[in-house]
Amino acid sequence: MSNAYYLGLDVGSVSTNLVVTDENDKLIKKLYLLTSGKPVNVLTHGLQMLLQELPSITISGVGTTGSGRQLASVITGADIVKNEITAHAVAAQKIAPNVRTIIEIGGQDSKIILLRNGVVIDFAMNTVCAAGTGSFLDRQAARLEIPIEEFGGYALRATAPTRIAGRCAVFAESDMIHKQQTGHSTENIIAGLCEALVRNYLTNLAKGKDIEEPVLFQGGVAANIGIVAAFEKQLKKTLIIPQHHDVMGAIGAAILARRAVKTGAKTVFAGFSCASREYVTKSIECSGCSNCCEVIEISYSGTIAARFGDKCGKWSNLSIAV
User: Which domains are present in the chain?
Assistant: First the structure.
């Protein structure tokens, strides 16, 4: 059994994902936790859970990604910090080495990544509109009083999908309510919504992009069979859904961590004891130049661990001991 294990952390606005992989990139353990606006608390709680469930393992490398990757790096002592595009591409290539298109839809944003010959040649992200994201679908399922796990099944039972305006989350919800009031069935409305959200994705993110197979669908929304069916219908292509589609970013971070320390460099992981610290975060508005950056400061036991978020490096480049 492998003696080398790697920790991948993907801290996002909706979920915080933690995975442990071995030296062959095999997934040993995964945690999918809701961030709930408390990334530090959720991350440290996740680390404590991993320690309880895997008490005897030694972490040989740590990688972080997601919108909270810098925060996670400060807390854990990461060996590598990478953006979501890189992390998702690396994880996808582990599943399908010849992957050419990655569709990723998470809790509050969506992405498309194009690869050719193993290299990312183009990508696009949508962090503005919530239409089609996991949080939007969760809200519609709750409004219709349908468990989100059954939401996609309703779409597959539709006989004539209702045309829904999907270019905006607000308009989509208003249109759904209107169609309910005019007597359309729940199944047809949900199918219409899935098709509208896929149209929105393809029109905005994928406009002008050549979507070639193999196509991998990653992120939490990949579990929604209604959205999958709508993509396959409009693209006329079969989508590959990875087994661990919900934590692919964290898996990519763990793979990158293994690569970062493969030369024999010792990990800078602070150890699972970092989860027992009491962290305090606050923001500082720097008026040193016209950028007026909002700098994030994190400290514990009265000691400043790091500052980040500035554009010029004035604060983040300061030598601060973690």
Answer: 5-95+249-276 (3.30.420.40), 101-244 (3.30.420.40), 278-322 (no CATH)
How does pLDDT run across 131-166, given as a tens digit for each residue?
667 788 888 888 888 988 898 999 999 999 889 876
Q: Detail the DSSP E strand segments found in the chain.
A: 5-11, 15-22, 27-34, 59-65, 80-81, 101-105, 110-116, 119-126, 215-218, 239-240, 279-285, 294-300, 303-308
Rounded CA separation 160/177 (Å):
17
Q: Write the burial class of residue 258 (CB in 10 Å: 0-12 exposed, 13-18 middle, 19+ buried).
A: buried
Q: Which two tokens stand for residue 164?
A: 């829904």
Residue 78, pLDDT score: 94
Cα separation, 38 vs 85, in Å, equals: 24
Contact by Cβ (8 Å): 279, 75: yes
Query: What span, in angstroms and rounded, lies between the C-alpha atoms of 192 and 67?
Result: 31
> Do residues 50 and 28 lie in contact, with contact meaning Cβ atoms separated by under 8 Å?
no
* pTM strictly above 0.85: yes
90 contacts 249 by C-beta, under 8 angstroms: no
Angle between the 248-260 and 84-95 helix axes, to the nearest 10 degrees? 90
Q: What pLDDT, in 10s, does the model give residues 25-57?
A: 999 999 999 988 888 889 999 999 999 999 989
* Helix/strand/coil for 315: coil
